From TrEMBL:
<dbReference type="InterPro" id="IPR050598">
    <property type="entry name" value="AminoAcid_Transporter"/>
</dbReference>
<feature type="transmembrane region" description="Helical">
    <location>
        <begin position="383"/>
        <end position="402"/>
    </location>
</feature>
<keyword id="KW-0472">Membrane</keyword>
<feature type="transmembrane region" description="Helical">
    <location>
        <begin position="76"/>
        <end position="99"/>
    </location>
</feature>
<feature type="transmembrane region" description="Helical">
    <location>
        <begin position="210"/>
        <end position="232"/>
    </location>
</feature>
<dbReference type="GO" id="GO:0015179">
    <property type="term" value="F:L-amino acid transmembrane transporter activity"/>
</dbReference>
<dbReference type="InterPro" id="IPR002293">
    <property type="entry name" value="AA/rel_permease1"/>
</dbReference>
<feature type="transmembrane region" description="Helical">
    <location>
        <begin position="468"/>
        <end position="488"/>
    </location>
</feature>
<protein>
    <recommendedName>
        <fullName>b(0,+)-type amino acid transporter 1</fullName>
    </recommendedName>
</protein>
<keyword id="KW-0597">Phosphoprotein</keyword>
<feature type="transmembrane region" description="Helical">
    <location>
        <begin position="283"/>
        <end position="301"/>
    </location>
</feature>
<keyword id="KW-1133">Transmembrane helix</keyword>
<dbReference type="GO" id="GO:0003333">
    <property type="term" value="P:amino acid transmembrane transport"/>
</dbReference>
<dbReference type="GO" id="GO:0016324">
    <property type="term" value="C:apical plasma membrane"/>
</dbReference>
<comment type="similarity">
    <text>Belongs to the amino acid-polyamine-organocation (APC) superfamily.</text>
</comment>
<feature type="transmembrane region" description="Helical">
    <location>
        <begin position="244"/>
        <end position="263"/>
    </location>
</feature>
<keyword id="KW-0813">Transport</keyword>
Length: 518
């Protein structure tokens, strides 16, 4: 009896021991798998450089040559007052963008990390515990919630105008104002490239490459047609010259806003520096190739418009490129709105591609919710910030119109162009002993700073608009969030649950930077 009971206890003990041992093995297996998964994440994320020189050039050209040259031409000409000053301003905007990007190039040579945000942190962050990081946060706040969504809204509305106009004309249908409003907003909402950007970095860059080639072909048609008519002697509108040119700084600055919108993608490559192959070589080359190419295209396109259309026709037209195509191409005029739609889609793609990256870095720096810094486990794309930009852009589409959104965008972006130049000048003295692979004469950032300051002050002094007040109010509102959530590092109730929810929903994880910090 005793022996049988002992044997039973022994068997039971061995069975329990075996069970516990198997559980330990199972736990060990899970731990190994978990560690291996995260080792693969670290390996993949440290090799997260997938944008080459050609893709860098096409990203800059593709983002700049979008709706701007097709929707800003009329407003810029109206504010300039004459064809001569209009062409000069298109060229000056190009030079301004090139100088600004040369300054960014100098900054990027020291900080191969995302854009103006890091410049503000480096320049002002160490100066004061409270006030130092404020400018970086305000820049991120305005860029993520205002500038990038307004950019997407303008592009989407431009897409709607150029997509619907030739179709409605072809079927001889003239909708009333309300139906036109609803149709434009519906089409603008459909104009989303979010899926491609969320799907993969390579997918987004491939779309960008293809659409850039497509839009350059459409632009070549406009430039070629304009040069042909110029050769035939159609110079009547160009001969007006500078007659009637604007003389006030306010008008010229407002005209400049249209040019700034058209050139607004000039710094987008800085936002994806971390994904750029061999950035010390490819970043300057991409800038030097893309900006002069874009400036030449813009000036020649406006010359082409003026060879065929009168200044008044250009000013009054919502779809100036379509009007040009109707006058020049006849039955083949459908090629122009097709080219513009391709152009706008490519630019929207490039804008979302870059917009997701600034949100990603701000989240990684702890100045926004953590999940905005997370990227997809397999595709390595920052899904959450891209979707956020798209959603806010759609909300701006509903009440907005292109002209007011362009003024809104131009005023906001000029503030931070000026601040970025101040940051560069400050670091020129506070970090003068640092090695600088690329050097820029200090007069260049001073010029860009002064011009940017004029672009901010002159329109307010000459013709204040409600859009400017909204921008300043939004900047001030950022301080409400900065004090508790950034300076005092308070967390919103339930933010952990929200982060986990979005991680599961979008299959996003922290990057290698987050692992290293933790």
């Amino acid at each position: 009896m005793y022996n049988s009971r002992l044997v039973g206890l022994t068997v039971n003990s061995l069975f329990l021991l075996e069970t516990q041992f198997l559980r330990v093995l199972d736990c060990f297996d899970r731990v190994v798998k978990y560690l291996w998964i995260h080792v693969k994440i670290l390996i993949n994320f440290t090799a997260w450089f997938q944008v080459g020189l050609f893709s860098g050039v096409t990203l800059i050209v593709g983002t700049m040559i979008g709706s701007g040259i097709f929707v800003s031409a009329g407003s810029l000409l109206a504010n300039a007052g004459s064809p001569g000053l209009c062409l000069v301003l298109w060229g000056v905007c190009g030079v301004y963008s090139l100088l600004g990007n040369l300054n960014n190039l100098k900054l990027n040579s020291n900080y191969i990390i995302t854009g103006e945000y890091i410049y503000f942190l480096e320049a002002f962050g160490p100066t004061h515990k409270f006030f130092g990081p404020i400018l970086a946060f305000i820049f991120a706040w305005v860029t993520v919630f205002l500038i990038n969504p307004s950019s997407v809204a303008i592009l989407s509305l431009s897409f709607a105008k150029y997509f619907s106009s030739p179709i409605l004309t072809a079927v001889n249908f003239c909708p009333d104002d309300y139906l036109t409003y609803v149709l434009d907003r519906l089409l603008a909402t459909i104009c989303a490239i979010t899926f491609v950007n969320c799907y993969s970095v390579k997918g987004a860059t491939h779309v960008q490459n293809i659409f850039t080639v497509g839009k350059l072909m459409a632009i070549a048609i406009i430039i070629g047609g304009g040069l042909y008519y110029l050769g035939l002697g159609y110079t009547e509108n160009l001969e007006i010259g500078f007659e009637g040119s604007a003389s006030s700084f306010g008008q010229i600055a407002t005209a400049f806003y249209g040019g700034l919108w058209a050139y607004s993608g000039w710094n987008n490559l800085n936002f994806i520096t971390e994904e750029l192959k061999n950035p010390y070589r490819n970043l300057p080359l991409a800038i030097i190739i893309a900006l002069p190419l874009t400036t030449i295209c813009y000036v020649l396109i406006n010359v082409s418009y003026l060879t065929v259309l009168t200044p008044q026709q250009i000013i009054s037209s919502d779809v100036v490129a379509v009007d040009w195509g109707d006058a020049v191409l006849g039955s083949a005029s459908f090629l122009i709105p097709l080219g513009v739609v391709i152009s706008v889609i490519g630019t929207t793609n490039g804008t979302l591609f870059a917009a997701g990256r600034i949100s990603h870095v701000v989240g990684r720096e702890g100045q926004s919710p953590d999940f905005l810094s997370y990227i997809h486990f397999e595709r390595k794309t920052p899904i959450a910030p891209i979707l956020l930009t798209s959603l806010l852009g759609i909300l701006m589409i509903i009440p907005g119109d292109i002209a007011s959104l362009i003024d809104f965008f131009g005023f906001a972006i000029s503030i931070f162009y000026c601040a970025a130049m101040v940051a560069l000048i400050v670091m020129r003295f506070t970090k003068k002993d640092e090695h600088r692979p690329i050097k820029v004469p200090i007069i260049i950032p001073v010029i860009v700073m002064v011009v940017s300051a004029i672009l901010v002050v002159a329109p307010i002094a000459a013709a204040p608009q409600v859009q400017y007040f909204y921008v300043l109010l939004f900047i001030s509102a950022g301080l409400i969030f900065y004090i508790p959530f950034v300076y005092y590092k308070k967390s919103l109730p339930g933010i952990s649950f929200i982060t986990i929810f979005f991680q599961k929903l979008f299959q996003i994880v922290p990057t290698s930077h987050d692992f290293e910090e933790k």
